[in-house]
Amino acid sequence: MDTLLLLLSIGIFLGFLIQTITGFAGALVALPILLLVMPLTEAVCYISIFYSIASPIYFYKEWKNMDKILLRKLAITSLIGILIGSIVLIYGQPTLLKKALGIFIILFVLNSILNKNNWKFGSKLEFILGLFGGFFSGVFSTGGPLYAVIIKNETSDVRVFRATMFGILGLVSMMRISVLVFEGVFTTIELYNSLYVLPFFILALVLGKIVFLKLDEEFLKKLILTLLLVSGLVLLFKN
């Protein structure tokens, strides 16, 4: 196994292990590892492939726990954001916007820790955040933390949070991979290499589910906030 396939396997395994446990942060874990051996556009393609494979599994197992109304609203705004973000992915990288997203996420986490009352988003702000979730998913494949902020604001139930995150990230991935194919960024090379990584990906899903069932709800809430804080810091300080 060459270096590219080795790091691709490690990145996808660790990313989807965390993704299956918490419902998000898969791309944030996998992306820095993948970027060691490939450009951003190629890394986004690989992450999109495995999100698309995982999505039917997540939907089948978690459908009953998903917030369908919120999922529908986020899907509509995300499609618009992905179309814009995918174009920017090819022609430029909005570093300042990425850092602004990091600051927003950090402030949300600090508010959640210090203030027992969550921020309450109105429908307009929720629309804007959903739009930016799709945008950052299209550009950096890192819209997950923003969706986590929106969904966490809507529910305190970890199972509903996790299931709804699976739902929106699955829909976003299928939208994103369609746009990448249309724009000619996605190639058969990514599909071919993904076959080698598939066993590690399946192992991550199985182990992630086992770990999730063993963790209590309070610990999961703290883990979600911790991952959000880390993701915010990474977005803010990493170029």
Walk me through the structure:
With 239 residues, the chain is mostly helical. The protein has one domain (3-237). Helix content is 82%, strand content 0%. It has helices at 3-22, 26-34, 40-62, 68-91, 95-114, 123-139, 144-154, 158-182, 188-214, 217-237. The longest helix has 27 residues, at 188-214. The radius of gyration is 16 Å and the shape is globular. The mean pLDDT is 79.
Supply the key terms.
mainly alpha; 82% helix; globular
Number of helices: 10
Structural class based on helices, strands and sheet pairing:
mainly alpha
Overall residue-averaged pLDDT value: 79
Distance between the termini: 29 Å
Task: Please tell me how large the radius of gyration is.
Answer: 16 Å
Task: Describe the global form.
Answer: globular
Number of DSSP strand runs = 0
**Multimeric organization:** single chain
Write the layout of secondary structure elements.
Blueprint: H1 3-22, H2 26-34, H3 40-62, H4 68-91, H5 95-114, H6 123-139, H7 144-154, H8 158-182, H9 188-214, H10 217-237
Helix pairs in contact: 1-2, 1-9, 2-3, 3-8, 3-9, 4-6, 4-8, 5-10, 6-7, 7-8
